[in-house]
DNA sequence: TTGAAAGCGCTAACAT
DNA sequence: ATGTTAGCGCTTTCAA
């Protein structure tokens, strides 16, 4: 691998000069510039970014930590983040935390050891205190990590309101929320979906009902629980699920039980990924603004990295959008 | 950020000694070891991997280049790769090539500039010659990049045979392949699916039929083409698609046309991702051994990186597995 | 068992 | 307009 001094020798100049033309600063004559450029080409020279960063230059590396990459919502968000970061000259170190706090912590150390310029986190383990004490720029998606760390999210409360109101408007009276319920705690921004649900029903003088369904359960067990529920609760006529997957499961089970969706049961999900929308356009859902989220995450991180902007209890919230489709048809 | 010399000062030893305990070599007395460890803890010391790698040490960074991360097949493969690399102490630089040769090339430069220890590629642009001239360990998924670069893939030919035979066995006679067809060229390993299809039908004295469907088309256009095809080709009774997505589209369109699957039309896909299997268990498909592929990719890369093993025209092929389900029921 | 010092490839202050 | 040189934080010979 050719290095700076090789280029310098070949071009008949000093290393400084080569460094200058690479970084394009100071005064250079056209002649030397050209000499250096040709030397660089001939040697197929690539600057070693390790050596560069060692002087305090940015590494242009950003750690991106998410709980899963196979979940289409995260996949689409990560894809957007990667693409936008690339356009800004950054590379992504992908950290798939896998709901594993130990792995996440280990990644955190690796990232600081690698001198990343910043970190984008979207995981949900609350055990990791390190984020607060790190002096690295961090931005978070949908999770409160500390007062200094800005949190970007979509408006889960408003989204849930949209969804619930859609169920009411389509004629449902006996409406259930299906998902992981944390009635009361609301540490997780996502719990706001529950609150928005309850609030909207209250405003419509209806009673909220819940079916707790842990996210960690296997699909088969979820299906079984949903089947159980639907069989024993013939009164239910509207369901708001915590995510599109669960909504799909509900629709599948309903079909197998010959329950007509949307005639006898309205269903609405949450997330609105392109993947699920393209294969199940019949599903009404709340679409999170994935592109905007990615943009805001990166914009905010950029402000922290390049303008050293400080944040204090910043919660940046983007509006959600209702996708009205067949599963909530009147 | 504390550095080696800080630790040395605090522990009352030289930097050499600290370096020795970090890397655990040379002879150290227990006493100094302990002194250094406590100093490290107190300062919350993290070695700077940039400085380390500058001496020629490995960066423990691997570039992972794929055409898409939102496609569940790649998402699941990347997730497996990431997890296994992590267990081996490597970090992943995620490169989403997006079917964009320019971006891919640019990433390639970035990766070499960052001194990655190796690269795993799964993209399909044939324009990039750089792979062959790089002296970096590269392994490829499902794509021939050059004689020195080992190619790992599942057995597309055998998979297609399994799929096609399943259609025949379930009683279909008038069988179509739907997907991007490249009749004859077979540069892409994936084209072997077409060959396996043709071969199997020949063995069963049946004639192969094709519906060319470009992957780049939007879902709506694909659906339209499929609808057209099914409407105008009432004789078709078996369909093998190039991937599960297309199979799902076929089933959706068939349903809307009141064509009974599997009674009047057998359908089988390819890929067998967990995601699609969990939401469409009724789809028969060929499951690629994603975990094994990931393992083999990493194992091979590891041989190249750490044992400097050379490969010449290596094609490592893993068997596929038939998932027999409702869509090909007799 | 420990330390001094050279140097990895680059940048940037300081000279000229 | 160009060059000399001192580091960045670490590893590693070589010497003690």
Explain how this protein is built.
Two copies of one chain form a homodimer. Chain A is α/β, with parallel strands linked by helices. Chain A folds into three domains: 4-47, lambda repressor-like DNA-binding domains (434 Repressor (Amino-terminal Domain)); 61-154 and 290-318, Rossmann fold, CATH 3.40.50; 156-289 and 322-328, 3-Layer(aba) Sandwich (Rossmann fold), CATH 3.40.50.2300. In chain A, 44% of the residues lie in helices and 15% in strands. Chain A has 13 helices and twelve strands. Chain A has helices spanning 4-11, 15-23, 30-43, 49-54, 72-87, 101-113, 130-133, 156-169, 192-203, 219-232, 244-256, 274-279, 290-306, and strands spanning 61-66, 91-96, 118-121, 138-141, 151-154, 175-179, 209-212, 238-241, 266-268, 285-287, 315-318, 321-323. In chain A, the strands form three sheets. In chain A, strands 2-1-3-4-5-11 form a six-stranded parallel β-sheet, with helices on both faces. In chain A, helix 11 (244-256) links the parallel strand 8 (238-241) and strand 9. In chain A, helix 1 packs across helix 2, helix 8 runs parallel beside helix 9 and helix 10 packs across helix 11. The first copy, chain A, is elongated, with a radius of gyration of 26 Å. In chain A, 46% of the residues are buried. The model of chain A has no long low-confidence stretch (mean pLDDT 94). Chains A and B meet through helix 4, helix 5, strand 2, helix 6 and helix 11 of A and helix 4, helix 5, strand 2, helix 6 and helix 11 of B. The first copy, chain A, binds a DNA duplex (16 and 16 nucleotides) through residues 3-5, 13-17, 19-20, 22-23, 25-29, 32, 47-57. Chains A, B: GO terms for molecular function: DNA-binding transcription factor activity; transcription cis-regulatory region binding. Chains A, B: It comes from Pediococcus argentinicus. Chains A, B: Keywords: DNA-binding, Repressor, Transcription, Transcription regulation. Chains A, B: This is LacI family transcriptional regulator. Chains A, B: It holds the Pfam family LacI.
